[in-house]
Amino acid sequence: MRRKGILIVISGFSGAGKGTLVKRLIERYDGYSLSISATTRQPRPGEEDGREYFFLQREQFEQKIAEDGLIEYACYCDNYYGTPRDYVERQLNEGRDVILEIEIQGARKVKQQYGDALLLFVMPPSAAELRRRLVGRGTESEEVIEKRMRRAAAEADGIEEYEYIVVNDDLETCVAQLHEIILAAHNTPGRNREFIENIRTELEGEE
Ligand code: 5GP
Questions:
Q1: How far is Cα of residue 111 from the mean position of the Cα atoms in its chain?
Q2: Ordered domains of the chain (ranges, CATH)
Q3: How much distance in Å is there from the Cα of 103 to the middle of ligand 1?
């Protein structure tokens, strides 16, 4: 039976640690590919074009939209963010699980197009812990922290649209749990239609 790749969408509040989690998942287990998004936002210090994001001018991004080169895109804090289609399709066809680390509007659009996509939401253990992590980063002003905390409250309304939540308390435990959920998702009937149909046909031949 040929293993088909799953498109995995990971969302979560800013500060929930989804970036670290995804990085660790890919380091620890084989078979995952991380999609690199395109964005019109400016690179932050230390970010490299083609590593964190493909940094595009607005016109270049709009060209991509016009060519249908993006699976989805969203406007977030005045910038475009979008998922390039080619890479994702290629990796899925090769049987790899592809991870998209995107926000909720994008997650919804992905689910509309890829019914088998697996939607996961990363949560902090508590709101106080989320604040502590945001403050602890030391990179955000008080005003930005307040803005992100308010945004978290708004984003929390959409959590039921996801299939699983994972609580990022201890990183390694959380990574293992994430991997187990994905392994289990491979075994749902909906993601194994071809295999099931083949067995049915074989069984009919036995009669
Ligand atoms: P940041 O600017 O902090 O890197 O990302 C801001 C938000 O955009 C995060 O919630 C991130 O998950 C989301 N994001 C990153 N890439 C994409 C994308 O390709 N599509 C969508 N819809 N959201 C994205």
A1: 11
A2: 1-31+97-207 (3.40.50.300), 36-94 (3.30.63.10)
A3: 6
